[in-house]
Design brief:
Elements lengths: L1 E6 L1 H15 L14 E6 L5 E3 L2 E3 L1 H11 L16 H8 L11 H15 L4 H12 L4 E4 L6 E8 L2 E6 H7 L6 E7 L10 H7 L2 E4 L8 H5 L4 H5 L4 E4 L2 E2 L2 E2 L4 H7 L6 H8 L6 E4 L12 E4 L7 H25 L1
Helix pairs in contact: 1-2, 1-12, 2-5, 4-5
């Protein structure tokens, strides 16, 4: 199978590791493939930000490090065996912002990326070059080579203003009431080279349990990507279990766009025109979404085996629904 996964964040990266195991595709160490299956990841770049003169792509890096064996497993983000000398020195100089901590090992990635971008290479080429080191066993594409940043309109003690998503998420822990979430630059962005071709050639698109608003939603917000996926078999894995996010603060993001935090409402928000199938946890058994095949099973990615089983269930449902689609066609 050829599978496309629009992904961002820790949940998406860990799901991808399970999907890679389920399909028997290349490992981080060797990229030797034991099957003919392939995975193309469309990475969210809406979280990207420039700080201290460096272009930082958190979601691309989390996928790359997780699949490449360099992630801090306890945190789910950043590098393993990380040091923070650079952060401490910046603080000593009084450099701001102080809420974003650059790790020493991670900083090297940002330096390479920033230098390549300054030399004229597009983000897709830069990402490919970085992956040459990490060998993630998937093809990792940014959603766009254009600059798109997610900003949040908040209303607090300083009045109504727009701040970068990273500031809202990290500094304020999504506690500032959000009135609107905006993908600045998204309306004029174009899908990165290879993105639409990968979707057109895919046997299935699987939406992982990533944040439905600022991860998957940002990717779908790039003109042409959602439209291309509508013609594919699309199966999603709910990031909401029992009315709460599996991790993170996706509920704050959903509230900002007026969507109830629930497995059913999230699927309805994504739309029956896009989704063919939707996996929910057993806690949400009985969820119904008009026009979407809903199945329930355990969805906690508690260990590698459980994660692989979730990914396999998503693939199996996609195969089943694709066959049905073929029969109707």
């Amino acid at each position: 199978m050829r599978i496309v996964v629009p992904a961002g964040g820790i949940g998406g990266a860990r799901f991808l590791r399970g999907l890679r195991a389920a399909l028997g595709t290349g490992t981080a160490a060797t990229e030797e493939q034991t099957t003919d299956h392939s995975i193309t990841v469309i990475g969210n770049t809406g979280d990207d930000i420039t700080l201290f003169g460096l272009r930082i792509c958190p979601d691309l890096d989390t996928v790359m490090y997780t699949l490449g064996g360099g992630i801090n497993e306890e945190q789910g983000w950043g590098r393993t065996d990380e040091g923070f000398t650079v952060k401490e020195e910046l603080l000593a100089y009084g450099m701001k912002p102080t809420w974003f901590g650059l790790g020493d090992r991670d900083t090297a990635t940002h330096i390479v990326r920033t230098q390549m971008l300054a030399a004229g290479y597009p983000l897709s080429a830069v990402t490919e070059a970085l992956c040459d080191r990490w060998r993630p066993g998937v093809r990792l594409l940014p959603m766009t080579d254009d600059q798109v940043e997610t900003h949040v309109v908040v209303n607090g003690d300083e009045g109504r203003r727009a701040i970068h998503f990273q500031e809202w998420w990290i500094k304020h822990r999504a506690a500032l009431p959000a009135e609107q979430i905006v993908g600045v630059g998204a309306e004029k962005a174009e899908p990165a080279p290879g993105v639409l071709d990968a979707i057109a050639e895919a046997d299935a698109v699987i939406l992982p349990p990533s944040n439905p608003v600022v991860s998957v939603g940002s990717i779908l917000g790039v003109p042409g990507i959602r439209e291309a996926m509508v013609d594919r078999t699309v199966v999603g894995v709910s990031p909401i279990i029992g009315g709460a996010p599996v991790r993170g603060m996706a509920d704050a993001c959903l509230t900002a766009i007026g969507v109830e935090t629930g497995a059913g409402p999230v699927a309805e928000h994504l739309g029956a025109d896009l989704l063919d199938g939707w996996l929910v946890d057993e806690a949400d058994a009985g969820t119904e979404v008009e026009g979407v095949e809903v199945r329930s099973r355990p969805l906690y990615m508690s260990d590698p085996a459980a994660t692989e089983a979730i990914a396999r269930a998503a693939v199996d449902l996609a195969v089943e629904l694709a066959e049905r689609r073929g029969e109707r066609g």
